[in-house]
Fold these 2 entries.
Entry 1:
Amino acid sequence: MAKHPVPKRRASATRGNRRYSTWKRGELKRLNNLTKTVACPKCQQPRRPHTTCLICGYYRGRVVIDFAKKDEKKVQKVKV
């Protein structure tokens, strides 16, 4: 008796090809998303879509990351 599951019938070539084609399509989508960039409306630097700009800290017209506050905190830590 087999100790592991064994298929009752041989899987057709079409079925296997279909399985691997969907995997490949997903891989290509992920690779495409890594390379897409858009220009930030505030500073015109390239950034990934639907993410905060790491140069100016803006997302959808408002400040999400305040770099001035971060710099102040670093200066205070150094002075102490």
Note: The longest helix spans residues 13-35.
Entry 2:
Amino acid sequence: MQKILLVVNDAPYGTEKAYNAFRLAMNIIKYHKEDVKIKIFLLGDAVFCVLTNQRTAEGYYNIERMLKYILKREGEVKACGICAEARGIASLPFQDGIELSTMEEFSRWTVESDKVISF
């Protein structure tokens, strides 16, 4: 099984980097689920993606729903603990299935992956 790591470095809204990373993950899962394991590591302002109760305008993409789709289909998502602490959100409730992580785990995921894609 191929392992793909997506690294997201930008806020959930304002640019489309997180949106495009999660769209890619969703399509890989949809069309290649049997052949690929998806892992996502959130760095910097991307840690805001983990927060619950996101309310977006009708017809606008919603990062929370996209992550729920990925997690329900065995994707794995972790957020940088240092990044979350620096932004004051480490103690806020995260979406179910998403945990704070470390650079040690991020480095392990990177080494274990067949492909690493950064957004």
Note: The first helix runs from residue 17 to 32.
